[in-house]
Structures are given as structure tokens and as C-alpha cells.
TrEMBL record:
InterPro entries: FAST_2, FAST_kinase, FAST_Leu-rich, RAP. Keywords: Kinase, Mitochondrion, Transferase. This is FAST kinase domain-containing protein 3, mitochondrial. It comes from the Eukaryota. GO terms for cellular component: mitochondrial matrix; nucleoplasm; ribonucleoprotein granule. One of its GO terms (molecular function) is RNA binding. Transmembrane segments: none annotated. The gene is FASTKD3.
């Protein structure tokens, strides 16, 4: 491990001494040293004062330091316990325990000045720790869009000494010190022609070509090059090639995830690396239990970008450990986890339970984007979770101003899709109406249509906005530059118009023109109805034939004039007798059987989806006798006789007036 000694590197004057720290320098000597270092740094560092260039530095430092009881570090010259032992009686006696103490102390600092003061009191500091210190400095100075190091940091003599040492002789650095220094330069903007950067890159290239970099160093170098030079960097191929030649079982969990991130940066080459990815996916199964929340989310994100849909065993195992870490994810990490689960279609009841508890407890503090993603996850997976829906509704009522128009739509739509009105529904939709009244034009047309359509599914009809939706101006905006409106938008418009007719008789605004109305809500890819479960239909059909005596007495998949498709229709005359389905006269009543399979309900529940509840509600308002035949009732029947008796009760109960 290379060591950097400030006494030797700050200047080469024979009468220059360090007493405990840099603080012992006399004013005249400091100015001399400052001038000398400034001249060395000028080509790549001091130019920062002349033009808006942002630079990052990571290098090594020196001084002796002690550990007391293994808990803290004490610079030479400060009072310590008599039980203290010296770190470096020989200059290479730094242990893993010492490193852990150093990094724990380093991570406890809250400002770059504290870090620089700390390392300036140390006499001998390994290059890996020095690079870590500079990495920490750049981490703390990376604030928002302003990635420029402050002038007081740039002019700090300890900081200059670190940078100068790394720039002057990188060949003496350890692999870890070298690549960590380079990695630090990726945290802030750096001049591509800076002497520091060019020297570090040249040394990395030299060691790479010699094959002398270890696995961890290759991983750090690869990711650093992507940030500095982009994924098209030619050196990256050599790094990946060398990593592919290593034994994956020797990779640490952190290195495995870093390798995923490197491959993630060039998804266009996924076919080229798929064989290696398959090995990685299998090997990763054994390291999942050791991943931190951050690494779990990063691995899931990489699997999404690399489209590793065949790695479902890995996704499932990652999901198992995600459950344990949900309270510890940052908002960004939780969002990435949810995006991955949406992408891979993954869900399980343990994750849902943990997510419910987390969202219910911290929803008011969650980032709006995360709240929207939670709702999207529930919507996509048809998860009917009252704790989540109630918490999100309360959050929106309290903090609606934090949500963008798109986020507002993503938050409200699941309530309609999952057919749920929260306890504070009146406050929720009053708040939504106020937002729409003041920010109507800020909502993208298709987003607005989906939002209002979702409200109508749970009988919160957007009467105050229907006139604007059906207006030629809005329809033109909805179509945009496309030659015609998409089928889903047309279907939503049609169902909203049907809702206005059936459920809002007081609506007197513009009507939807016939050219914007669809003939059927049951169409591929843009359906407002769920297709009938064929196996369930076959079971019911057998029972109906036994009950009615012939297939002649009922029709299947009947398209009504009102766009809905009825699973099974039975016609009754005035006396309640069943008519053949071919008869079109003397029909007194039509019975609509809704044969509801599992896909018409929320996941693992008996709660009907919003679009199916709306269909049954509308059929009832149109005069049909609606009879629901849910799958969970059919599954409980043990014989054909029980099925016939069940259908008889459903169709011809005492108050139905029907006969057969």
C-alpha cells in the first residue's frame, strides 16, 4: 500500500518542518510552499479561478495517527490515553481495523473543511485512505447543479498537496488508490485536459494493458470511464473482456452490482454479453442475501435496462429480500424497486403487506413521484389495498400542490380502476375539482381524459368538465397531429358520453359526435371490458343446457346497441317464460348473465374492477336484469346437479318471475 507523506511532498526545502499538523508552518514558509504548489497545479487546477470549469480531485496525504480502544483516531501532538498504540511504527502497519476507524471518522464529518482539517493533522496516510478522503470531499461538495469546488477548498494547502501528489507520480499508487482517485473525478465536472485526469487515465490504461488490475479495480475503472468518456469508450470493451475472464465466485456483492451497472450502460450490446449475463444471473442468486438496500435497487434496475426477463428466479429472490429492507430504502431506491416489479410483473403478499405498512406510516413524507409509483404498482398489478389507497388519498388532500398534473392523474386513476372510494372521498374529489378548475390547461389531453374517465368509474362524474371534453377544440387537441384518434381514447369518450346520458340526466351540454363513438367496448388492446373466461363459460353453459333443456334458449357474447358485450343473454316473455334467442318479438325482459372470471376482480380478492362494476351498473340502467355468476361461487360447486340448482336459484328466484 502506497503511503503519502506531507512532510516530503509539500515542498523539498531542507528547513521545512511539520509540527503535529500544517498549522505549524510559518507565514513566510507557507507562502513559499503555496507558490510552489500553485506552479505545479497551474495547468489543470488553478485555471478554475479564471473560467467556469468544475474539477474533482482525490489523492493521498500523510501523518501519523493513533487509535484509542479501536474507536477513534487521534492526530500526533494531541493528548491521548497511555494505552494508545502507534499506527505505523513501520510505515506499513495499517490494519483493516485501522481503516474501518478512519472511514467511520471520515463519514462522520459534515463539511469538506472538517475532512481537510482532520487529514492535515495526520502524519502518514495510505494512498487508499487519502483517495477516500478526497472522494468524501467531492461527495459533500456535489450540491445540485453547482458542481464547482469552492474557492476556499481549492486554495487549501492540504487539498493542493493531495492533488499534486496524485498528479505527479500515479505509478507509485496502489490499484485501489489509483482507481478511487479517478472515481472521485467523476463526482464533479473535470476539465478533460487536466493534468491530474490525464495522468491518472494514462496510468490506469497502462495497468489495464498489463493485466495488473484486480477485479474491484476493474469494476471501479469501468464505471468511472463510463462517466468520464461515455459508454462508447473503447477501453470499456477491454475491461469487460478481462472481467469476463475472472471467476464470478470471487466477486464481492458490490463488484457484481457494479458489473451489472457497467453492462447496463451499453444495453445495445446485451445480445453480445447475454451468455455472460446468464452466468451472472445464476451467480447472483448466492449474493442476494448480502446486498444492501441500495445495491438491491441497483441490481433490479440493471435487470430492467438489460431486459433480463429470463432471470425471474433472481427477481423473485431479490423480491424476497426487498421485503426486509422496505423501511430502509430511500425514496429513489423504492421507486426503482417498484419500477422493476412493474416491469417483471412481480408481486407477492409479503411485499404488499410490507409496502402497506411503510406507505401508511410515512406517506406524508414520501416524494410525490414515489407516491405516484406506488399507485401505479397497485393499478398495474390490480392490488386492492385499502391501507395504501386511504393513505394516498389523505396525502393528496393535505399536499395536492406538490403533485404535477401527470402525478395527479397517476394517483387518482387507480381509485377508478380498482373501484374504491376512500373514506375522505368528498374531500379528495373536491380537491381534485379545484385543481382541474384552476389548472385544466396544464393537463395533457389524453392524461386528462383518462383521469376524468377513471372518476366516472366510481360514480364521481365530472359533470362540470364534460362540456369541455366533448367540445371540438378539446377533441382536436386530443387528436394532436395524428390522422385519427386512438381506439382507447374513443372508447373512453364514448363511455363518458353514455355515463352522461344514463347517470347524469341533468347534463345539457354538447353531445359527443357520432364519428367519435365506438360500436363496441370489447376490442383488443383498448378494451373497457374484460373478455369472458372461456373455461368458466363452458362450465356455466353445460349447466344452462341442463336447466333450460336446449342450447336454443340462450345466446352468448351478445353485442348490445350500447357498446357492451353480454356474456350470456336470456329473453323472457310477459309471463316470465324463456324464449328462444332467435325470437325478436314479445320480449318482456332480457337477462344479462355476467360470468365473471378472476381477471374481472382485483388480485386475490372478490372486489370487482371499476370497469366491470360500471358495465353492470349501466346494463341495469338500460333495463337488463343483471345476474352475476362469479368464479368463486362456481368453484364451490361439487357436482353437475349442484350447478343446475345454483343457476336455478340465480335465474328463477321467487321474485324474478321467470319460468322454464
Amino acid at each position: 500500500m502506497a503511503l503519502i507523506t506531507l512532510r516530503r511532498n509539500l515542498c523539498h526545502l531542507s528547513d521545512f518542518r511539520i509540527h503535529g499538523a500544517l498549522a505549524g508552518l510559518k507565514t513566510q514558509r507557507v507562502n513559499c510552499v503555496h507558490k510552489t504548489v500553485k506552479e505545479h497545479l497551474c495547468p489543470w487546477f488553478w485555471s478554475l479561478q479564471l473560467e467556469p470549469v468544475r474539477v474533482r480531485f482525490h489523492h493521498a496525504h500523510s501523518k501519523k495517527f493513533h487509535s484509542e480502544n479501536g474507536n477513534d483516531l487521534h492526530p500526533v501532538g494531541e493528548p491521548v490515553s497511555s494505552q494508545v498504540h502507534a499506527w505505523d511504527r513501520s510505515e506499513h502497519s495499517v490494519t483493516n481495523a485501522d481503516e474501518q476507524i478512519f472511514y467511520r471518522r471520515l463519514n462522520s464529518f459534515t463539511s469538506s473543511e472538517e475532512v481537510l482539517h482532520f487529514i492535515s493533522t495526520l502524519q502518514i496516510l495510505p494512498d487508499t485512505m487519502a483517495a477516500g478522503a478526497l472522494h468524501r470531499i467531492c461527495e459533500m461538495e456535489k450540491k445540485g447543479d453547482d458542481q464547482r469546488l469552492p474557492k476556499e477548498i481549492l486554495e487549501n494547502s492540504a487539498f493542493q498537496a493531495l492533488c499534486n501528489q496524485f498528479a505527479q507520480d500515479p505509478s507509485n499508487l496502489s490499484n485501489t488508490g489509483l482507481v478511487t482517485a479517478l472515481q472521485a473525478l467523476t463526482l464533479l465536472y473535470v476539465d478533460p485536459q487536466s493534468r491530474l485526469l490525464l495522468n491518472l487515465l494514462a496510468e490506469c490504461q497502462h495497468r489495464l494493458e498489463r493485466g495488473s488490475l484486480d477485479i474491484h479495480s476493474l469494476c471501479i475503472l469501468g464505471e468511472s470511464l463510463i462517466k468520464l468518456q461515455g459508454p462508447g469508450c473503447s477501453t470499456l470493451d477491454l475491461i469487460i473482456y478481462q472481467l469476463q475472464g475472472e471467476n464470478l465466485e470471487e466477486f464481492t456483492p458490490e463488484d457484481i452490482v457494479t458489473l451489472y451497472r457497467i453492462l447496463q450502460a451499453c444495453p445495445e450490446k446485451v445480445d453480445q454479453h447475454q451468455t455472460f449475463l446468464n452466468k451472472m444471473n445464476n451467480c447472483s442468486l448466492s449474493v442476494v442475501s448480502n446486498l444492501s438496500p441500495k445495491l438491491l435497487s441497483q441490481m433490479l434496475t440493471a435487470l430492467v435496462v438489460l431486459d433480463q426477463t429470463q432471470a425471474l428466479p433472481l427477481v423473485i429472490k431479490l423480491g424476497k429480500y426487498v421485503v426486509r429492507h422496505i423501511p430502509h430504502f430511500t425514496s429513489e431506491e423504492l421507486r426503482e424497486v417498484l419500477e422493476a416489479f412493474i416491469y417483471f410483473g412481480h408481486n407477492d403478499r409479503f411485499f404488499t403487506k410490507a409496502l402497506e405498512q411503510h406507505v401508511a406510516s410515512v406517506c406524508l413524507t414520501l416524494d410525490p413521484e414515489v407516491v405516484s409509483k406506488v399507485m401505479e404498482y397497485c393499478s398495474r398489478k390490480l392490488i386492492f389495498s385499502k391501507p395504501i389507497l386511504d393513505a394516498v388519498a389523505e396525502t393528496f388532500v393535505c399536499q395536492s400542490e406538490k403533485f404535477s398534473p401527470n402525478q395527479t392523474a397517476e394517483l387518482i386513476e387507480p381509485f377508478g380502476k380498482l373501484n374504491y372510494l376512500p373514506p375522505n372521498a368528498s374531500a379528495l374529489f373536491r380537491k381534485l375539482e379545484n385543481i382541474l378548475l384552476t389548472r385544466f390547461n396544464y393537463f395533457p389531453p389524453k392524461t386528462l381524459l383518462k383521469l376524468l374517465h377513471s372518476c366516472s368509474l366510481i360514480e364521481c362524474h365530472p359533470v362540470n368538465f364534460m362540456a369541455r371534453i366533448f367540445s371540438p377544440y378539446f377533441l382536436q387537441q386530443l387528436q394532436g397531429e395524428e390522422p385519427y384518434l386512438d381506439r382507447l381514447s374513443l372508447a373512453q369518450l364514448t363511455q363518458l358520453f353514455l355515463t352522461a346520458i344514463l347517470e347524469c340526466p341533468f347534463y345539457k351540454g354538447p353531445k359527443l359526435l357520432p364519428k367519435y363513438q365506438v360500436k363496441s367496448f370489447l376490442t383488443p388492446c383498448s378494451s373497457l371490458e374484460t373478455p369472458m373466461d372461456f373455461q368458466l363459460y363452458k362450465s356455466v353453459m353445460i349447466g344452462l343446457i341442463d336447466l333450460l333443456g336446449a342450447r336454443l334458449y340462450f345466446a352468448s357474447k351478445v353485442l348490445t346497441p350500447y357498446c357492451y358485450t353480454i356474456d350470456v343473454e336470456i329473453k323472457l316473455d310477459e309471463d316470465g317464460f324463456v324464449l328462444p334467442f332467435t325470437v325478436d318479438e314479445d320480449i318482456h325482459k332480457r337477462v344479462a348473465l355476467c360470468i365473471d372470471g378472476p381477471k374481472r376482480f382485483c388480485l386475490n380478492s372478490k372486489h370487482l374492477l371499476g370497469k366491470e362494476a360500471t358495465k353492470q351498473r349501466h346494463l341495469y340502467l338500460l333495463g337488463y336484469q343483471v345476474v352475476q355468476i362469479p368464479y368463486y361461487e362456481i368453484e364451490m360447486l361439487k357436482s353437475r346437479l349442484e350447478l343446475v340448482e345454483y343457476l336455478q336459484r340465480k335465474l328463477f328466484s321467487q321474485n324474478s318471475g321467470g319460468h322454464w
